[in-house]
Each structure stands twice: as structure tokens, then as C-alpha cells.
Amino acid sequence: QKEDIEVTLLPAGHCPGSVMFLFEGENGTVLYTGDFRLSKGEAARMELLHSGTRVKDIQSVYLDTTFCDPKFYHIPSREECLNGILELVRSWTSLSRYHVVWLNCKAAYGYEYLFINLSEELGIKVHVNKLDMFRNMPEILYHITTDRHTQIHACRHPRDDDCFRGNRLPCGMTCQNGTPLNIISIKPSTMWFGER
Fold first, then answer.
1. DNA repair metallo-beta-lactamase domain: from which residue to which, for each copy (predicted)?
2. What is the pLDDT of residues 64-96, one digit of tens each?
3. Which of 66, 128, 158, 169 lies at a 20 to 30 A Cα distance from 7?
4. Is 126 helix (H, G, I), strand (E, B) or coil?
């Protein structure tokens, strides 16, 4: 039996290029979310989820349920998280140029929002190992650098935690101009938030 279906890719907001799939055919409409992150009201602005002025009738939703657990009852908004991190980074980096922040990011992608906003607000570029993976995201290239002499690092090492314990950044920096660095680590993670 053959059936024509229409497949629409919708932005998932999880990391650059992430999508949800909307399948529409004679037997109904199905939404497959995969990993997604939408702000309140964002789905209402997605024209492709609507037919005229009505939301499309979706018979089945295959939903990523990573955070479908009572311990994740309240997850702060992206803006709340950014403001908390921004306040902490600003207060630490303003102490001296030897006060450095390491953003302990476990995944390669998905932190672009954080890097861009920290850089814009504080005027400090974020150190990353390589620019290659960001080449197709020109909006972030102005906010990141491979120059280790910056106060915000998101560089990575296979054994990041071991590096940090020795008061050194994953890129190997421990001091600047002979002055030891004072390093704090911030681990941006919803999983970590839920565990606490």
C-alpha cells in the first residue's frame, strides 16, 4: 500500500540545525520532536504548525521525555540561566585580568546562545579549541577565539576534570605573564540542575 506524505522540518531550538519532523498524510498528522528546546509561546509562532488560524490536528506526538520527571518540575528559562551566569562571570572577571572562567561544556554544540550573549554583554571573546565546527554559523565567529589569553574559556580536553583540579584550564594555561590564574568552573547543564 502506498501513501503520499508531506514531511516538514520545524526548528527544534536544541542546537544549530536541530529539527522536529511533522509528517502529514491521509492517515493523519504525526509530530516527532527528538531533542528540542522551545520557549513559552514559540510553538504558537510557528506558521507551519498551523492551518490558517488553527493549530493543525496532530494525532500522535513522539516526544523526547528526558525531562519528564518530577525533579524537573521547574526548569529555569534560558534567559534566567543566562542572567545568573552573566552575573557570576561579570563579578569574577572584574576582580582582575587573572580571574578566569571555564565553561565546562560537555557537548560540542548547543552553547552558542551562551557564548554570544556573554561576549556581547562583557566584551570578552570565548576561547574554544578550534573554529572549524563554527564555520557555518557566522553569527558566532565574532564572539569566539582560539587566542588563549582571554578571561572566558570553553576549551575542551579529553579529561577536563583532571586538568581543572590542578588549577589549569583544559588548553593548558595556568598563568599569564607569570601570574597564576584564579579559575572558576561553570557547568551549564539541565541534567545537573535536575540532579540538584
1. 138-192
2. 777 777 777 777 888 888 999 999 999 999 999
3. 66
4. strand
